[in-house]
Design brief:
This protein is an all-alpha fold. Helices cover 79% and strands 0% of the residues. It contains seven helices and no strands. Helix 1 runs parallel beside helix 4 and helix 4 runs antiparallel to helix 5. The longest helix is centred in the N-terminal third of the chain and has 43 residues. It is elongated, with a radius of gyration of 18 Å.
Length: 155
């Protein structure tokens, strides 16, 4: 049994790095979709009824959720692990990305449909990885991506 756990631990190192990079890409896609939704929402917004505010306000929230997704992997820090602890395990990240993808899909543009589908599939992949690999804390297994870049420039 220990040999199986050791093999899983050895094989998940590269997998975590790949998922970190894909999380950054997904965060950027979500940010772009949020900006686009805000822009399209400005075209249909009226003072009354408030139902016309949906895309505009939703775009702001989607942008900040994408920023959080990017920030947690690229920069890290105590803020994410303190206030968004569910993002430190693959099940939490997976549910977060499924939510974001399903929220992006109905924004009404081709890019949002494609980006939302990709983000949703990435969320499902995170959920699968949660049950295949037993990672208690993603932050404990890796370092932020931008720290790696800064370390390479200093050497």
């Amino acid at each position: 049994m220990d040999q199986i756990n050791d093999a899983k631990a050895a094989s998940r190192g590269p997998l975590i790095k790949i998922f970190d990079v894909l999380t950054c890409v997904a965060g950027v896609l979500v940010c772009i979709a949020g900006v686009m939704a805000f822009y399209w929402g400005l075209g249909v917004i009226h003072a009354w009824p408030p139902l016309t505010w949906n895309n505009c306000i939703g775009g702001i929230f989607i942008f900040f959720f994408g920023l959080i997704a990017f920030w947690m992997v690229a920069v890290g820090g105590d803020f994410i692990s303190t206030w968004f602890k569910f993002l430190d395990v693959y099940l939490g990240r997976g549910c977060f990305f499924v939510y974001l993808g399903l929220r992006i899909i109905p924004m009404g543009q081709g890019f949002c449909l494609t980006a939302g589908g990709l983000v949703t599939m990435f969320g499902v992949a995170n959920i699968i990885v949660h049950f295949v690999y037993e990672v208690e804390s993603i932050a404990g297994e890796t370092t932020p991506l931008l720290n790696n870049v800064r370390g390479a420039n200093e050497a």
